[in-house]
Amino acid sequence: MSESGAGAGDVVAAAATTAAGWRRAGVAGAAIGVLAAGAAAGVAVERLTVGRGMRKKARLALDATGPYGSLRGTPGRAVADDGTELYYEVDEVDEFEPGQPGNPGQPDQAGQSGQPNQPGQPADGPESPGDATARTSPAGADAPAPRRRRLFGRKPPAPVTVVFSHGYCLGQDSWHFQRAALRGLVRTVHWDQRSHGRSERGRAQADGVALGIDQLGRDLKAVIDAAAPEGRIVLVGHSMGGMTMMALADQYPDLIRDRVVAVAFVGTSSGKLGEVNFGLPVAGVRAVRRVLPGVLRALGTQAELVEKGRRATADLFAGLIKRYSFSSRDVDPAVARFAERLIESTPIDVVAEFYPAFTEHDESGALPAFRDVPVLILAGEKDLVTPSSHSEAIADVLPEAELTLVPDAGHLVMLEHPETVTDRLADLLVRGGAVAAANVGEHGSTAQQPGR
């Protein structure tokens, strides 16, 4: 057994025999979970001055009142090449007034907490274009509902669809602000990556197949085939979602050439993630890299134990998220809690399952496929997970792209500075011909919330 594997085994043995041991395993599990979406292990966190009971009550209050992650669309499911069911939602343009959140689909109670549905759980798919009719005739209930007209015997062209792909240990709801602002302006698809959110656990991984970013690219292709089989496409991806888009381009270059009209890479990387230091001293980075693979494997086999530890160390967990996901000191506590909920809903064995794929990730060769379309590359200047230098490296390959580095922003820049991200995204949609400039108006720089 390797040195790292032996160390991991010692951690698990201690966790199984003493309460202090499982608590330490929980701390490690929390740290590793946050690492996935904007954090790292080995961080000292300042303790709050109020008691633990008060902090727990505050978290529950934020969960009850925070509007983040409450937006729902028309549900559907795509099937990946290994049979994994991938959950997605569609926001059609004619279902909303521009910029108004709305809620056309039935809320998925399991989805509110970010938990996946059970395999095979039914979900209503999006309305078929061939079945579309006007909602209700103004003449009254007895009047026939008019059907959409076809010009010269042909159905209307398919609308432009913006497909949002989320990051590691997050879910489709991480695009909450951008989704709210773009409703009624453009057709959007939001999906949960395999083993995340409401999607099914990866079936190939359950059978022992190692996960690679190339698999995520094929998953995205399955979602596009199901939710946007026709028409032009805009691809938007954060962190792992951006890597997923690169893998799509590598395996399906014809799709990029024929249908994609604009692309946005948010806080992502085309490779060399194994060199990221997460803001740690050199010695600390070396230690983490030496033991992390073995620790992850060990923790992944003790998922129930580690989840208990994560719940017991909720305060530490919240502190880690704030340090590694955000840079601003005045982040809305409800937004910080929302990020925490997204991350903590990802089981530790899923964290362990995905992690090795990032050290092997190198999709720099796929980037030239995007040279002929408008590209937005956006990152937080203080991102410790996918540093802004990785966005600059993407821009070096795509010199015509717009590179935007957001000051005082961390890894979850779309939650920390939503107006900036939405504004640049709206401009990209105009440049790609997805929306008219006159239709964007103030919606390109606003993040409306339910009830406002």
Written description of the protein model:
By secondary structure, this protein is of the alpha/beta class. The protein has 2 domains: 3-40 and 53-66 and 279-357, no CATH class; 74-127 and 154-273 and 361-445, Rossmann fold, CATH 3.40.50.1820. 43% of the residues lie in helices and 10% in strands. Strands 1-2-4-3-5-6-7-8 form an 8-stranded mixed beta sheet, sandwiched between helices. Helix 1 crosses helix 10 (282-300), helix 2 (19-37) crosses helix 11 and helix 8 (240-251) crosses helix 9. The radius of gyration is 22 Å and the shape is globular. The model is unreliable at 1-51, 105-151 and 443-452 (pLDDT under 50).
Feature tags:
single chain, 452 residues, alpha/beta, Rossmann fold, 2 domains, 8 strands, disordered N terminus
Looking at CATH, the homologous superfamily of the largest domain is Alpha/Beta hydrolase fold, catalytic domain
Structure summary, number of beta strands: 8
Oligomer: single chain
Please trace the helix and strand order, writing H or E for each element: HHHEEHEHEHHEHHEHHHHHEHEHHH
What is the averaged pLDDT score? 75
Radius of gyration: 22 Å
Main beta sheet strand tally, sense and closure = 8 strands, mixed
Q: State the separation between the terminal residues, measured CA to CA.
A: 58 Å
Any idea of the CATH class of the largest domain?
Alpha Beta
Strand residue content: 5-15%
User: Which consecutive residue ranges, at least 5 long each, have pLDDT under 50?
Assistant: 1-51, 105-151, 443-452
- The helicity comes to 40-55%
CATH topology of the largest domain: Rossmann fold
The structural class is alpha/beta
**Which outline best applies?**
globular
For the record, the count of structural domains works out to 2
CATH-level-2 architecture of the largest domain: 3-Layer(aba) Sandwich
Counting H and I runs of at least 4 residues, what is the number of helices? Answer: 18
- Strand order within the widest beta sheet: 1-2-4-3-5-6-7-8
